[in-house]
Design goal:
Structural class of chain A: alpha+beta
Oligomer: heterodimer
Strand content of chain A: 5-15%
Number of strands of chain A: 26
Largest sheet of chain A: 6 strands, antiparallel
Number of domains of chain B: 1
Radius of gyration of chain B: 15 Å
Largest sheet of chain B: 3 strands, antiparallel
Number of helices of chain B: 5
Shape of chain A: elongated
CATH superfamily of chain B: Winged helix-like DNA-binding domain superfamily/Winged helix DNA-binding domain
Strand order of the largest sheet of chain B: 1-3-2
CATH topology of chain B: Arc Repressor Mutant, subunit A
Number of strands of chain B: 3
Helix content of chain B: 55-70%
Distance between the termini of chain B: 39 Å
């Protein structure tokens, strides 16, 4: 317990320094008195005794200092003293402090903001047991309902197949499956009174999961229980729901009694059985994570789609994942065996779907099929695949900006250290140790960098919020948070300290190296100013580094900005002005496929009556979107070669779609309102499709069938429309597209099997339109309120999920490019400003240091011109060195990001020319001002100041 | 601890060249007789050593402070014979133990050194 007493005593004396001081004084007084008394006893005169005792005591303060430094708290006290001295020193140069804190806060803030996103998007492990054992089966970032593909293609599986894997996971610890997308559903929650009429109705997103989903994932509920295989036993049973934490918190106000109660989902009662903990979002992490989960057996209710839970269903909508055995996690051989086993299952499933015995070549093709096991330690994330590259580039960019800021501060501090040489020399002469001086200098920089880091946290919070808002594109709840967690705080602290050491170390060493003698002599200034080449080595090196890095950032920003412009300006094939899009979902409002004809007509009538709307149309998908409806097609009389790609994007449209979307016809006629349900079934194809199937003849008049039972056709091709960019604007291959009239889609689907009772045919879900298109005569966003009002007038319960202009829809498809180009641009400008400040600072400082030299030169007859040139030449040399290093570096770095570029090469000469011009212009500006000041030096004043 | 060790090195050797590292042992021995104030300790060391060792306050007071911190002695303010307040130091149980240990070690070392010198 001694150390505890020691600690307490130390702290007491630290906080109560005056009383410790007076105690010591009293003890010393007592000592002196005793000594004097004793010496008098020995026969000295009081006078002599006093003198002798004082001489023995020596310096009273030295004794006190020795006593003080024999205690541990003195080290702490020295530290506080250093901090106080540093603060006093900094307070004397508020301009420097302001610039330093601003650049540090911006630099550290930018780093923290980007790191927060990287941390959340790319580094967070799933909050489950042993996430390292989780693997996704194939690329699970794909989602949707696919038909006419092989089992496992696009990472999508049919329900019956995942059931087999669940029951028999082979060498895996378990295989589980989940619906590949979260579906919007209407949820009604009974108020406490319990009367259904009192229920609030809202939209939520629901995820379908297999019965073993939570157990394979290794996720435990916060309350209640998770879905079990018993819930998911057979189609139609298992009306239970597990809620996500944010849904429980935000929608149910964290109601603790919700467990066991009933909520209504798409008009069916579900029992709430569990609540997942905060941060659990399932394996797949989208922008809008699921609000609740239900067993996959509830698919018809949740998706509002006819059952896909039949053996041999050709519709694939599940993603699958598995938990590897510990052996397969640790051992490559075991992993390969596991992969082999899975491939065999896939081959068997594909074979079973073939029907007839496959040809030998097809058999070989099937044997080559493989579903890669993709590590899912951090889950499966659309954001990661979408923004991962951009975020990594941005992290590099902000790190460079911070480096440039560091170089600036190092330069400022070096300049300060030089002006403070007299002070330091004085302190050395008075007995201060070099270590103490270096330490104090480092404390000063750490104070700056940590304060800058704290301010940076604030900036980062705001910036991260803005970035998340950008990434989320208006989603209501999104799985990211700008609030820094401990990892982010640690990161910020670490870079603050590293930054402080980075820019503080050189000045600290330079300061401590000061010689006590010489510096104090009067002639010192001349030797420093004139011949001190070595003293200007560091500032010059730092400026060269800044020029180099700024050039790199400028080139990067130029390349990305031009990429973005190329993407935006390319010909999309449709008219991109004055077009308004709105997504709606009639299924959620309870409409059946049979009612859609009438609903669509009423909508079109209302919408086209809006003043300022030139035409209105409905379509299954908008002219451009990242997801699409697609299928293989067949043309009568055309036999495709084996493996020939006959896949076409499909769209179902109302009359006037082409007019409204602004897609011009190349040949034939568009789909028109007169193509009614009873008329001839017609289709419009795009140029790519016509070129593919009819390279030398006319496509018009030919018949086309689609490999989806509900819209099989045949359809007669009556028109050829221009090619349009329908998905990723970067893709170089023009997809084939087929448009069919909404009105001509059969009200009921095909019989489930040949010769079935016609009464068993289900209503055709493909009759629903998903989007409204309005071509306006003015600004399309001005019509949004009218559009909402018109839809509400038709049916107030019809949910409008998203309303946006076509420009917003286009920018959504290139949002990662917008993110990297705009932010790189901003950071490059910031870097340029910092570099300009740095160069200006160094050149001004040089001029001040060389004032006497310049004075002598002028007195000896040098022309003002010569003096200006002398200063400019030095700046030009620094600039040239920076450019000479920066150009190859930029070319190298541009090579690294060439995958991200579009429509230009990594060595795009225009970009380099502009970047060079910018850096040269800014550098010359910042050198010109000090040079002019040098020219007006008055020789007499300059020499007198010596 | 580290700071303390460093400071110990900085304590200048007393003018009378007290053998390095023995000051604390001597203080402990002195205080083993009776509680004393600082000057009393210095005087007693000087008297007992018949003037061979003189301890100046620049080393005595830091040593006392250090030993008080490590719990080997404790202090209290008392009135002196001249009716003034003075800080009196008393040996603690820990101090007594460390005196015994230090004495033993010292005897051991001096015996060894004598052996070497007499050889």
């Amino acid at each position: 317990m001694n150390w505890l007493k020691n600690l307490r005593a130390g702290l007491r004396s630290l906080f109560n320094k005056p009383s410790v001081e007076s105690d010591l004084d009293e003890e010393l007084d007592g000592y002196l008195e005793a000594a004097i008394a004793h010496k008098q006893q020995l026969g000295m005169t009081p006078e002599h005794a006093r003198h002798a005792a004082l001489a023995e005591l020596g310096s009273r303060n030295a004794v006190k200092h020795q006593v003080w430094s024999s205690r541990w708290e003195s080290a702490l006290d020295n530290l506080f003293q250093d901090i106080r001295v540093s603060l006093r020193g900094l307070a004397k140069s508020p301009a420097f402090v302001a610039v330093a804190l601003l650049s540090l806060a911006l630099g550290i803030g930018a780093n923290t903001a980007i790191f927060t996103l990287i941390h959340q998007v790319m580094l967070n492990n799933l909050p489950v047991r042993d996430p390292g054992q989780l693997v996704a089966l194939g690329d699970s970032t794909n989602s949707g309902i696919a038909g006419g593909v092989d089992v496992g293609q696009f990472g999508l599986f049919p329900w019956y197949f995942t059931r087999q894997l669940e029951a028999n996971p082979g060498p895996f610890q378990g295989i589980a499956a989940y619906g590949s997308f979260a579906q919007k559903v209407t949820v009604q929650i009974a108020q406490s009174s319990g009367a259904p009429s009192n229920a609030t109705s809202l939209l939520a997103s629901a995820g379908l999961v297999s019965g073993n989903y939570f157990s394979v994932l290794g996720a435990h509920p916060l309350a209640g229980r998770t879905i079990t295989p018993a819930d998911d036993a057979a189609p139609g049973i298992g009306a239970v729901a597990v809620l996500s934490f944010h849904f429980w918190q935000n929608t149910l106000a964290s109601d603790p009694t919700i467990l066991g109660k009933t909520i209504t989902i798409n008009a069916m009662p579900f029992e709430v059985i569990g609540i997942m903990p905060r941060g659990f979002e399932g394996l797949k992490q989208g922008l809008e994570p699921a609000d609740l989960w239900t067993p996959s057996t509830m698919q018809p209710v949740i998706l509002n789609h006819h059952s896909m839970l039949t053996p041999g269903s050709g519709l694939y909508f599940m993603n699958a994942f598995a938990r590897l055995s510990p052996q397969a996690t640790a051992n490559k051989g075991a992993l390969a065996q596991t992969q082999n086993w899975l491939n065999q299952q896939i081959h068997a499933a594909i074979l079973a779907n073939e029907g007839a015995a496959p040809s030998p070549s097809r058999q070989q093709e099937i044997n080559r099929e493989t579903i890669p096991l993709i590590p899912a330690t951090r889950g499966v994330s659309f954001l990661r695949s979408e923004y991962g590259d951009s975020l990594q580039i941005l992290m590099a960019v902000v790190a460079l900006v911070l480096l440039i800021a560091c170089a600036n501060l190092a330069n400022f501090l070096l300049a300060r250290a030089t002006t403070r040489q007299r002070e330091i020399a004085t302190r050395l002469a008075l007995g201060s140790s070099r270590a103490r001086i270096a330490r104090q200098s480092l404390i000063e920089t750490l104070l700056l960098s940590v304060t800058g880091g704290l301010l940076g946290l604030g900036i980062a919070f705001g910036a991260t919020r803005a970035l998340i808002a950008f990434v989320s594109q208006g989603s209501t709840h999104i799985a990211m948070s700008p609030v820094p967690d401990p990892t982010v705080l640690l990161f910020t602290l670490a870079i603050s300290v590293v930054t402080g050491i980075l820019f503080g170390l050189a000045p600290a060493i330079a300061g401590a190296r000061t010689e006590a003698h010489g510096t104090l002599s009067a002639s010192h200034r001349t030797s420093q100013g004139g011949g001190g080449k070595s003293s200007r080595f560091w500032p010059k090196t730092l400026v060269i580094g800044q020029v180099m890095l700024s050039l790199l950032l400028l080139v990067g920003a130029g390349l990305f900005l031009r990429t973005l412009r190329n993407l935006q300006r390319q010909d999309f094939g449709f008219e991109r002005t004055q077009l308004l899009l709105a997504q709606f979902d009639a299924k959620l409002a309870g409409y059946t496929p049979l009612q859609t004809g009438e609903l669509h007509q009423r909508l079109l009538d209302r919408l086209s009556a809006i003043p300022g709307v030139r035409s209105a149309a409905l379509a299954g998908s908008p002219p451009i979107s990242l997801g699409n409806w697609r299928s293989n097609i067949a043309i009568s009389g055309y036999t495709p070669a084996p493996k020939e790609n006959v896949n076409s994007i499909l769209n179902r449209v109302s009359g006037q779609y082409f007019e409204t979307a602004g897609i011009s016809m190349v040949a034939g006629r568009p789909i028109s309102p007169s193509d009614s349900a009873n008329g001839l079934k017609v289709a419009v194809v795009n140029q790519a499709l016509a070129r593919h199937f009819f390279p030398r003849s006319n496509a018009l008049g030919h018949w086309l069938t689609i490999d989806i039972g509900t819209v099989k056709g045949p359809w007669q091709i009556v028109g050829i429309a221009r090619d349009t960019r329908s998905g990723n604007p970067r893709s170089q291959n023009q997809a084939m597209m087929t448009y069919i009239p909404l009105l001509q889609i059969e009200p009921v689907g095909p019989p489930p099997f040949p010769g079935a009772d016609p009464a068993t045919r289900e209503e055709n879900q493909d009759r629903f339109a998903g989007y409204i298109l309005l071509r306006t005569s003015g600004d399309p966003s001005a019509r949004i309120a009218d559009l909402r009002a018109a839809v509400a007038a038709v049916d107030p319960h019809l949910p409008l999920l998203d309303v946006s202009t076509i420009d917003q829809a286009v920018s959504r498809t290139i949002s990662d490019d917008e993110l990297s180009s705009s932010l790189t641009g901003i950071f490059a400008i910031l870097a340029l400003v910092l570099a300009a400040i740095g160069l200006y600072g160094v050149m001004s400082y040089n001029v001040v240091q060389r004032t006497s030299e310049i004075g002598v030169r002028l007195a000896l007859g040098a022309q003002k011109r010569d003096v200006v040139w002398m200063v400019l030449r030095e700046a030009l040399l620094l600039l040239a060195a920076g450019v000479a290093l920066g150009l190859p570096l930029s070319l190298l770095a541009a090579r690294l990001v060439r995958q991200q570029l579009f429509g230009l090469k990594a060595d795009d000469p225009f970009t380099y020319a502009v970047a060079l011009a910018a850096i040269v212009g800014v550098a010359m500006m910042s050198a010109w001002l000090p040079a002019r000041r040098a020219a007006v030096v008055n020789p007499v004043d300059a020499l007198r100041s010596e | 601890m580290a700071a303390k060790n460093k400071e110990e090195k900085q304590v200048p050797a007393p003018p009378s060249e007290l053998v390095q590292g023995t000051l604390e042992m001597l203080i402990l021995k002195t205080l083993a007789l009776e509680p004393m104030h600082g000057y009393g300790v210095a005087l007693r060391i000087e008297q007992i050593s018949r003037g061979a060792f003189r301890v100046n306050p620049g080393s005595l007071l830091p040593a006392l402070s250090r030993m008080e911190r490590s719990g080997r002695i404790r202090s209290e303010w008392r009135a002196t014979e001249n009716n003034r307040r003075a800080k009196y130091y008393t040996l603690t149980a820990t101090g007594r133990h460390s005196l015994t240990a230090a004495t033993k070690q010292w005897e051991h070392q001096t015996a060894a050194i004598s052996l070497i010198l007499e050889a």
